[in-house]
Write a structure and sequence with these properties.
The chain is α/β, with parallel strands linked by helices. The protein is built from 22 helices and 15 strands.
């Protein structure tokens, strides 16, 4: 009736849609033989669900029942800050595009070009790892420090860099942007570089930063990520470090709100966009919970996040493909609500970036913000059942691990950080092993490396870093094989007409190329004698791979193998699951790295 409010069930009509989706999806799976004809449609959930390295299940479709019991995520800009730490114009203007500089030869002109062409702030690696500290004043001379935040990274001597920056601010006498950070992270340096990593450094940094109204201390979770940690391990490490700093700063005389205000958090963004979105949202919710229990006021519990595209996901080979990886990662960071984002240049794994690669990195954020309008919606992932469930799952798992790490200081005579690092080293080793298995079996494909490699590619030439970074890279095992190509090729005997052998021939050609092994292709062959003749014309390579349809294998595959062995072939591989009397097979789901190692060993005999 007019004038009376009515309750509206927004979920009404969902069940029929859900049933239709389940029925249609089951039909597709039956057609592809992934679901038995007599199996119930509901079995598709088990088939299509994915389990992360943290053993968190991700279902193929988010549903209301998955989120019905979850706690409220509140509003953007309000506790628990799951939906973002910023509100209003700050959010809609987009994230802070933070340019990264590490080249010792960086000059003021390059810094100015970065800021004039889209970057809002600077991230400077100083000291032996990058730009000499005594050049900082020259680099910042043209920079309006009250407009452009500056974040320092000086792992060898963070306080020397911090004091130099404070001196420069005083000399300019024009103020400094509140989102600047001295970047002191003794806990991260302790794990990444070893050594003491004294917490007193964080206290000194806070005392330098506080009078300027900026942050002094960095909680750098990319330290864990670059060791190979999972999302949950990265989150738990950040909470452990943040609490450690909070305790140290309050014991030094700062209030809990003042101590919390000194912390900037840094996380990695990968090309797994949904996990990245959920991780960044979960990080804010976790810190809100930790800070609340620590007595921090609600307004001071908003986490300031700097998100950096992942180094481990980057590849040296087919490095232009890194542009695709960083674009997806940047999108995820922005959707997740990061305050500042650094897109690493696509040539980062090869050495010092060039002006071109920095421009591409900078423009990635600019295009997402100003042309794709990603920032025009506050928390675009909010309300998605799948993302909300994944965010909560990450929170719960990270909270449990954080509790374990934080409880390690109860061991008599054991430093809590050292104990946490030792425990995480064990957990990360297991994670790396599990991830390595996925990479080896190509269930975690790396485009341009384990999939669709260009064997004739020449790596881009780049100047080396002042100090080579120690980073666990996902593509490393394949790239090591590519760095030392096999001296001899594999002879690919393609049985039958083109239409019957193309799929398997293409599969094994790419497989061999991913391990630095070239192939000599026979072309379409119709009988055994023709195969043997073309093999002889190719120089009688010791390793031969047959590629054809199952019908060809059944009809004359065994004869081909027997004649090849008689002629002197020492190692015969069959593409597909049909082994025949072959020495090896190459089929979908195999351990590619182990297969390539076996093949290369035979080629070297």
């Amino acid at each position: 009736m007019a004038g009376q409010s009515q309750e509206v069930n927004l979920a009404e009509g969902f069940d029929p849609q859900f049933e239709a989706w389940e029925k249609a999806t089951a039909a597709v799976l039956r057609k592809s033989r992934k679901l038995a004809e007599d199996a119930p449609d509901s079995e598709l959930w088990e088939i299509l669900s994915h389990v992360t390295l943290d053993e968190i299940e991700i279902t193929p479709l988010g549903t209301p029942n998955q989120t019905s019991d979850l706690p409220s995520t509140g509003l953007p800009g309000q506790a628990p800050y799951t939906r973002g730490s910023m509100t209003g114009d700050d959010t809609l203007a987009g994230w802070d595009i933070r340019g990264w500089f590490i080249d010792p030869k960086t000059d003021a002109e390059a810094i100015t070009a970065e800021l004039e062409n889209g970057a809002n702030s600077l991230w400077l690696t100083l000291g032996e790892s990058g730009i000499p500290v005594d050049r900082l004043a020259t680099l910042l001379e043209p920079v309006y420090l009250d407009l452009a935040p500056v974040v320092l990274d000086a792992p060898e001597d963070p306080l020397a860099a911090a004091r130099e920056f404070v001196r420069i601010v005083a000399d300019k006498a024009a103020g400094v942007h509140r989102n600047s950070c001295l970047g002191v992270d003794p806990a991260g340096n302790r794990w990444r570089r070893g050594g003491a990593g004294q917490l007193a450094l964080a206290i000194d940094a806070a005392k330098l930063a506080q009078p300027l109204g900026i942050r002094g201390v960095l909680v750098d979770a990319t330290v864990a990520h670059e060791q190979g940690a999972s999302e949950v391990q990265e989150l738990a490490w950040s909470m452990m470090v943040a609490v450690t700093y909070l305790r140290a700063l309050t014991e030094a005389g700062l209030s809990v709100d003042e101590a919390a205000a000194q912390l900037e958090f840094r996380y990695a963004a990968t090309d797994n966009q949904f996990l990245t979105i959920a991780k960044i949202r979960a990080a804010r919710a976790l810190w809100n919970q930790v800070a609340e229990l620590s007595g921090v006021s609600e307004a001071a519990r908003a986490q300031h996040q700097h998100v950096v595209t992942s180094r481990p996901m980057m590849a040296r080979y087919d490095s232009y493909t890194n542009m695709l990886r960083t674009t997806v990662a940047t999108l995820a960071a922005g959707v997740g609500g990061a305050a500042a984002v650094t897109v690493l240049p696509f040539d980062e794994p090869l050495g010092l970036p060039t002006p071109f690669s920095r421009r591409i990195a900078r423009n990635t954020s600019s295009l997402l913000i100003h042309e794709s309008h990603v920032a025009k919606v506050i928390d675009p992932a909010g309300g998605s059942h799948a993302i909300e469930k994944l965010t909560d799952d990450l929170c719960m798992a990270a909270w449990a691990l954080f509790g374990e790490l934080d409880g390690l200081d109860e061991l008599e005579g054991v430093d809590d950080l050292d104990a946490a690092i030792a425990r995480l080293d064990e957990l990360v080793a297991d994670t790396r092993e599990a991830r390595a298995a996925q990479i080896a079996h190509r269930t975690m494909p790396i485009t341009g490396v384990s999939e669709f490699p260009n064997l004739g590619e020449k790596l881009l030439a780049r100047e080396p870093y002042p100090q080579a970074p120690s980073i666990y890279r996902y593509a490393a095992d394949y790239e090591a094989l590519r760095d030392e190509p096999a001296e001899a090729p594999v002879f690919l005997a393609t049985l039958g007409p083109v239409a019957s052998h193309t799929a398997r021939a293409t599969f094994v050609t790419n497989l061999f190329a991913s391990g630095g092994v070239s192939v000599g292709v026979a072309g379409a062959t119709e009988d055994t004698n023709e195969v043997i003749e073309r093999w002889k014309e190719a120089g009688q390579p010791p390793v031969v791979c047959l590629a054809g349809a199952d019908s060809s294998y059944t009809e004359w595959g065994a004869d081909v193998i027997a004649k090849l062995r008689e002629a002197g072939a020492t190692h015969v591989i069959v593409a597909g699951a049909n082994k025949l009397a072959a020495d090896d097979t190459a089929a979908v789901g195999l351990d590619a790295l182990a297969f390539l190692a076996r093949t290369r060993e035979e080629l070297s005999r």
